[in-house]
Amino acid sequence: MWSERIAQALTAQRAADGWRQRRRIEHNSVREITLDGQRYRHFSSNDYLGLSQHPAVMAAWQQGVREAGVGAGASGHVTGYSRHHAQLEQQLASWLGYPRALLFISGFAANQAVIHLLAQKSDRIIADKLAHASLLDAASHSPATLRRFAHNQPASLAKLLATRAEGGTLVVTEGVFSMDGDSAPLAELAAETRRAGGWLLVDDAHGIGVTGEQGRGSCWQQQVKPELLVVTFGKGFGVSGAALLCDDATADYVEQFSRHLIYSTAMPPAQCCALLAALAQIQQGDALRARLQQNIARFRAGAAQLPWQLMASDSAIQPLIVGENRAALALSQRLAQAGCWVSAIRPPTVPPGTARLRITLTAAHHPEDIDALLEALYDAAGE
Ligand SMILES: *Cc1c(COP(=O)(O)O)cnc(C)c1O
């Protein structure tokens, strides 16, 4: 039974050019990666500010290890919650203007936890069509009804909200969309949600650290305060982990009832030390953010004449829509031959027929890296 099902699924995956190959990276310096003995300029990292290799962040992690070892040793509800966790939660809450922050070991876990805890049978979750898998999976596995509104269209949300609901309404979106790089119209989405008496959950995985004053992210930038804000630390923070920002009662509720917290080992305290150092770099990171913006502007100006559709994105995520899986893979390979590493993203991560190169830019790139990528793209376009 299982063997046949597995074999069929694998055959179908190969036939659809959908096979996902993990590549063994030998070295990753944010700006460059080495694999199979070959060095490439690196355009597939979410480490937008280069903090994963920042000396102060690495030193803080090492100091944390000397103070607290490498592991938390237990769930936070047993003995895994340290002063480092408490300090990080407090600083995140005050930085982002919320009463409370709760740490999770990943953004995936945070989204699962929040939706799992809130969504009951009579409730409805109304999510942007392109919301991340961790949000949509949680919603579709919950007893609530899942509806999806057209990507970044408040009018589409309003239409769905206009139908009466028995229970609660949770509207779900990302701040900056992970595969398109565009930003949600948060003020309009928040207004529609409030009018309907619902709650808004914003997952700002790709906005936090990168946009807004002091890197406070998409919500701060658009002056919106959702009831639930999830920020993740694997992207702009350069580390990993996540936090939920919310009011006191909601935080108490999550703390009391979240199985994802109660039955899971807490984040290593040394990692909290690294995250505190990354937070400090982000808060004083205007120069890094300016360099990233310059790289984005340089790329967009240079890419305007390419035959592939450049998406309307002013974020670090600059997707080029290629269309078919095979064509996207071929272009990715062609760029690799020219020394540029850009991953092709295919369905089901993106809608069918919109396979793309997901180009990500970082503050660590030099102008010559951007120029080399553009040259490789124009060369490929000319063939
Ligand atoms: C990466 C990502 C996540 C998952 O976060 P992890 O910490 O990597 O598990 C969740 N939501 C969005 C929008 C993401 O891009």
UniProtKB/TrEMBL annotation:
Q: Name positions with the PTM N6-(pyridoxal phosphate)lysine.
A: 235
What's the protein here called? 8-amino-7-oxononanoate synthase
Q: Where does pyridoxal 5'-phosphate bind?
A: 107-108, 178, 206, 232
SUPFAM superfamilies with a match to the protein in the record: PLP-dependent transferases
Keywords, comma-separated and alphabetical: Acyltransferase, Biotin biosynthesis, Pyridoxal phosphate, Transferase
Q: What is the lineage of its organism?
A: Bacteria, Pseudomonadati, Pseudomonadota, Gammaproteobacteria, Enterobacterales
- List the pathway annotation: Cofactor biosynthesis; biotin biosynthesis
E.C. designation(s) = 2.3.1.47
> Which molecular function terms from Gene Ontology are attached?
8-amino-7-oxononanoate synthase activity
Q: Which HAMAP family match?
A: BioF_aminotrans_2
Similarity-based family? Belongs to the class-II pyridoxal-phosphate-dependent aminotransferase family. BioF subfamily.
Source organism of the structure: Pantoea dispersa
Q: Which residues bind substrate?
A: 20, 132, 349
Q: Which reaction does it catalyse?
A: 6-carboxyhexanoyl-[ACP] + L-alanine + H(+) = (8S)-8-amino-7-oxononanoate + holo-[ACP] + CO2
Q: Which gene encodes it?
A: bioF
Q: Report the residue ranges that make up the Aminotransferase class I/classII large domain in this protein.
A: 43-377
